[in-house]
Amino acid sequence: MPLLTALLLQAASGPPLPAPPAPAAGDPPFQRELYEACVRATASDPGLAERFATAWIAENRGGIPARHCLGLAQAAQDRHAEAARTLAEAARAGERARHPLVPELWGQAGNAALLAGDAKLAIAHFTSGLAAAGAFAPRRTAALLLDRARAGVEAGDGAQARRDLDRAMALAPEDPHAAMLSAALARRSGDLARAQRDIATASRLAPSDPDVMFEQGNVAAAAGDEATARRVWDMVTKAAPGTEAARLAAERLKG
Predict the structure, then answer these.
(1) CA–CA separation, 234 and 93 (whole Å)
(2) How far apart are CA 64 and CA 62, in angstroms?
(3) pTM metric for this prediction
(4) Residue 197 and residue 127: Cα distance in Å, rounded?
């Protein structure tokens, strides 16, 4: 066994991943163990995962899964612009090969672009992902719509974000994060009644989710109920220490 492969498998010890997508016609032999190890190693040793994925690609044996792992490894090292390019290239190759991973690749490319500060590119990638998902994957479509809505907000296109959120909520009515994001957009747009309805839905679906609770406090503050807002934010800091929601809640409490 090559040394790099042995090191990768050692670094990637951990619980098994969900089954990866089946290979598409024309893919190199799909080496599931290596793919799973590479993806897992992006969390434990992303530099090693990157070196392995690069070598795997150079050997012309890893195909789209190797490029997927390379993009994840770049993202894990906060090289988000590079990751967006790698994942987008993998998605385009996947489209030519009719690979089942294509919607996921476009979604991850979009999120990497968003983290790199390029909201317009993120929107383009999410749109490509939606086209690839088609009408037969409602949950994947809903997730991509939520991602594109976030990018729309970043790009200053609140109207498009609202359309995407409404479609996502229709496709996934039991998704608390769709309702939470809709509440946040409504609050920022000055539609307090809509914000209150949507955050009530999100809180019913996920009453202990720290992000939902944080937005619940925001909506209460927007409605002038400062006591409820501060009580909820305090609950977030105690129930979910170390999370981004807790950090933001603590900032609100200081204000």
Answers:
(1) 48
(2) 7
(3) 0.85
(4) 28
